[in-house]
Design brief:
Helix 3 packs across helix 4. The C terminus is likely disordered. By secondary structure, the chain is α/β, with parallel strands linked by helices. 51% of the residues lie in helices and 7% in strands. It contains 26 helices and twelve strands. This is KANL3/Tex30 alpha/beta hydrolase-like domain-containing protein.
Length: 728
């Protein structure tokens, strides 16, 4: 018997059914533009036209050919995308006139998607959403074609192949963060610019081309359905808030009338209902009633915040029946000294900064609306008994230091902070990484964080700490690591324990801005977020070794041990020290095995070292790029041992070494030949000499002479005696 679907699966299926039903009701019209090299009659266009019509329940999917396609010379190079906008716009207007009162969706493949985005910027038409299939973000000369995307205010969904060279996903992620409009991305794993997936990739993942494209179409349908719902809700909300504003206007007029034409009793009774400023004139029973007029603006803001948190594209604040856009982004204010003071940080509309007592913190100025409301609304000042806990680290002693006062930070030869100042700095960097106004959580990767924001973080550090500028790289790396750990902590304790998005959104950490938390939840729910999570889990499972240093950096441990011993520890010694408990036992099995092998290698060698190929590297393996084990954050292999040559440089070095060796061998061979020639000449000379001796001295025993040749004196005496014996 098949098992019943899980709660999350039932909810997802219910949501899909709801979106499908809404699409059937709305029946959008889709204008689908082709790429630069394929007409509307190509297999790709026909296939995707049918899939979009079915998935979106479109009243019609209109395809067309740009003018350069017509005729026999349609394969000539297409004109610039800007030159096709007018023709594309005419097609769209005709489609709208043919099907009025239907939502308009613009779709396009490659160049067609780029032209569709340009057309959507035209104010003469009302576009509900854009579908970009293989958007050509990268131009021929390598420049990014993102100008149109950054101007868009229409929701857009990108469908890209992971192997699409015309749109690198990392660059697209950076552009998406800068875009003003709501946007989403669906990645076809292994797909190229036309979404074609290799046969080996399909076999490896047990999938088919049709399944991958069906998933993409479902993602498009989900995005379009939600977008159309939001547009409808936005219109309803606008009408509702407009009516509410008119009611507030009438209530205010009624209060003014009561104040001008009535006596004390009427002012008190009307004030008790509509918020009189004179609390002393109100009856005691009415003093606790809500003050509608004074709180009117706050009610509008709360209603708008609720809608904004539910629907990203609804970012408006309605005031007395008039709507205007309100920016909730935070821009740090850098003083002439180059740092941010807490009093300069404006409180955003997304959150209220609270101190431990529950009142607005003096570090953040209150908005005029909140000041006015406090002067007119009764506030219960009775203290509430709250259990004291340590709470999050806020590093207030550093943030509140007088201007011009700095904490001195010592650094080692690897530019790493050490000592008391290093510990304070590390704690302070954690508060920066967890502040969403300084380091927003909405960026996909730390590398995507704008350089301007990173520079502001460095200026904050320089304003509070006296640290060598050469440590800037370490400081930014440390903030990036803490920022990444902060996101991981939020997901572990506030996202994974819940099954529904409602529960996740409600369980927001108070230090996270609501808008950023909503975007994080949406990303973790996306296919891209799930794929990243699976990859990170797989990589994390390979890390079998943990250490016992706790929050103390390896740089501080190394410096403390150097001060005790009078010499610097080797990598093997520091590894054993930081992977052993106080009772002398290793922290885990993997550490135990590594320590045993290190001790065996150490016993075979007189002393350890910190070189690239020391016995620590032989046991633990080669270092990965960008870090060196036991040295902590900052130092890289090239910093310690010089740059590692790339394959081309290594081949060049090997060739030079081989050439040098060949030259030396050739020189040795030439010397050997010279020596052989010399020996041959000596042999001829000796033979001639022996023949002469034999002829002149026939009584000489040549064997005795050769045997006594080792002693020149004996040889001379033999020759003399032989000469005397032969005389007459």
């Amino acid at each position: 018997m098949a098992s019943s679907p899980t709660k999350r699966r039932r909810k997802s299926q219910s949501e899909n059914d709801s979106i499908d039903a809404y699409l059937q009701k709305s029946s959008p019209i889709v204008v689908f533009a082709h790429s630069c090299g394929s007409p509307s009659t190509s297999d790709f266009m026909i296939k995707w036209r049918n899939m979009l019509r079915k998935a979106l329940h479109a009243v019609e999917v209109i395809t067309f050919d740009y003018p350069y396609i017509h005729g026999a010379k349609w394969k000539t190079p297409p004109p610039k995308a800007e030159e096709l906008v007018d023709y594309h716009l005419d097609v769209v207007k005709k489609a709208v006139s043919k099907h009025p009162n239907h939502p308009l969706i613009l779709a396009g493949k490659s160049m067609g998607s780029r032209v569709s985005c340009m057309v959507a910027c035209n104010e003469d038409i009302n576009v509900s959403a854009i579908v970009c299939l293989g958007y050509p973000l990268k131009g021929k000369n390598g420049t990014l074609r993102d100008e149109t995307l950054l101007q868009l205010k229409i929701p857009v969904i990108f469908v890209q192949g992971s192997k699409d060279g015309n749109c690198p996903l990392d660059k697209l992620a950076v552009v998406r963060k800068k875009m003003k409009s709501a946007n989403d991305l669906h990645v076809i794993d292994g797909g190229d610019h036309s979404f074609r997936i290799g046969k080996k990739h399909l076999e490896l993942h047990h999938s088919t081309q049709d399944e991958a494209e069906d998933q993409a179409v479902k993602a498009i349908a989900m995005f379009i359905g939600k977008t159309l719902k939001i547009v409808e809700l936005e219109a309803v909300a606008k009408d509702t808030l407009t009516v509410f504003g008119k009611c507030l206007t009438r209530a205010s007029a009624l209060e003014d009338f009561a104040t001008r034409h009535s006596g004390h009793w009427l002012r008190s009774s009307v004030g008790s209902r509509f918020g009189s400023n004179s609390q002393s004139e109100m009856p005691q029973s009415s003093a606790s009633q809500p003050h509608l007029i004074q709180q009117g603006t706050q009610v509008q803001m709360k209603s708008n915040q609720h809608l904004s948190s539910s629907y990203p594209c609804l970012q408006r604040q309605v005031h007395m029946g008039t709507d205007h856009f309100q920016s909730s982004s935070y821009h740090p204010h850098i003083q002439q000294q180059g740092h941010i003071e807490p009093s300069q940080i404006q409180s955003s509309s997304d959150e209220t900064h609270l101190s431990q007592q529950g009142q607005p913190s003096s570090s953040y100025p209150q908005s005029p609306d909140s000041v006015n409301s406090q002067s007119s609304v009764d506030i219960d000042t009775n203290p509430v008994s709250i259990p004291k806990t340590r709470g999050p680290t806020r590093c207030l002693d550093v943030w509140t230091m007088p201007e011009g006062q700095h904490i001195s930070v010592a650094i080692n030869k690897y530019k790493q902070p050490i000592g008391f100042g290093g510990r304070k700095l590390t704690t302070f960097l954690g508060t920066i990484a967890r502040d969403g106004r300084i380091a927003p959580l909405t960026y996909l990767d730390w590398r995507a964080m704008p350089l301007k924001r990173k520079e502001n973080m460095w200026q904050l550090v320089m304003a509070k700490f006296d640290i060598d500028p050469s440590s800037k790289s370490w400081v930014l790396k440390s903030i990036g690591k803490k920022w990444k750990d902060w996101k991981s902590e939020l997901k572990k304790y506030h996202y994974l324990p819940h099954e529904s998005d409602r529960e996740r959104l409600a369980d927001r950490d108070g230090r996270v801005l609501p808008k950023q938390w909503k975007l994080l939840v949406e990303f973790w729910n996306s296919e891209e977020g799930k794929a990243r999570s699976a990859t990170n889990k797989s990589n994390r499972a390979k890390q079998m070794i943990s250490h016992t240093a706790g929050g103390k950096s390896f740089a501080r441990v190394r410096e403390e041990e150097r001060a005790k011993r009078g010499e610097e520890l080797t990598r093997a010694e520091l590894f054993i020290l930081t992977h052993t408990r106080k009772d002398g036992t290793p922290v885990d099995k993997a550490s135990s095995l590594a320590i045993l092998q290190l001790k065996e290698q150490h016993s075979q060698q007189s002393q350890g070292s910190n070189t690239r190929n020391d016995f620590f590297s032989q046991v633990m393996g080669e270092e990965r790029r960008g870090r060196v084990r036991t040295f902590g954050l900052g130092p890289t292999p090239s910093d310690l041992w010089g740059p590692t040559p790339n394959p081309a440089e290594a081949l060049k070095i090997a060739s030079a070494a081989q050439k040098s060796a060949d030259e030396k061998v050739q020189q040795m061979e030439e010397k050997m030949q010279d020596m052989q020639a010399t020996v041959s000449r000596l042999q001829v000379t000796v033979t001639t000499l022996m023949s002469t001796l034999s002829a002149n001295f026939p009584n000489i025993n040549m064997a005795d002479i050769l045997g006594a040749s080792t002693n020149p004196l004996n040889t001379t005496q033999s020759l003399s005696s032989s000469h005397e014996g032969s005389s007459p």
